[in-house]
Amino acid sequence: MRVFALSDIHMDYNGNVLWLEKLSSIDYTDDVLILAGDISEDLEKLRRVLSFLRNKFAHVFFVPGNHDLWVRRGECIDSIAKFWRVLDLCTSLGVQTQPTKVGEAVWIIPLFSWYVKPEEGSDSLFTPKEGDDPTLKMWSDDYFTKWMALEENTTVAAFFLRMNEKHLGKHYDAPIITFSHFLPRRDLIFSTQTEATGMTVRDPNPSFNFSRVAGCAGLEEQIRRLGSSVHVYGHQHRNRHRLIDSVLYVSHCLGYPRERERGQIRGLGDGPKMIWDSAMQEKS
Ligand SMILES: [Fe+2]
Ligand SMILES: [Fe+2]
To answer: Which of 8, 59, 75, 124 has the most CB atoms in a 10 Å sphere around its CB?
Structure first.
């Protein structure tokens, strides 16, 4: 049994649908797929893609990303209602959204999350960027998500992190792989020199500072409390494979076709990335 990582497949793009349709129907039948969010805001598309992947893999794990919780079509009263609807959909399809031990070898623990904006608290991954627009007027989540059911004085990030709390104090009798949609650490936002080698991309959005909406440090705290060996995440559409203080952080995003054309998404290959092989009992 092997564990594979993939995220941000954004099924609203034809190029992405074609990429996904090419996945083998025989190569992964004993394997696990971790799908770290951002499939589609369209629940019917989400249902179709999750069933498609359930037919290819022995297990599929999923956490919703920000795009999956958009409610501009009026299908749910707010993004919290949509979150529960997406989780119900996963249950009906046999897609895992709760901690589960697979192949008697490894625990997969989904971590729900959101980002903390700089004005929301010190858990934000914010890093100043000269000339950025602090109002984030180009950031679609501010128009397409709603949080009516959120208690006063609670951030969206705190709401989701609280859901993970019940998993933190338990004993897990095998190595742990965690995953989230959002980033757990500020340093993962930025390419290392090696990752940036040969990359000649100029900043396509100089006024957009991604770190305002990247993730939250509370996630990292949960990853460490769990004693995770590997953490898979998505959201930024920048692929990473980095060992930091004994945790391997992996992001393997399909992203947008234009990002692949510009060379911003690298090392994608033609399928999900293997991050664990039970025959070797270790991360790879
Ligand atoms: Fe995405
Ligand atoms: Fe995202």
So the answer is: 8
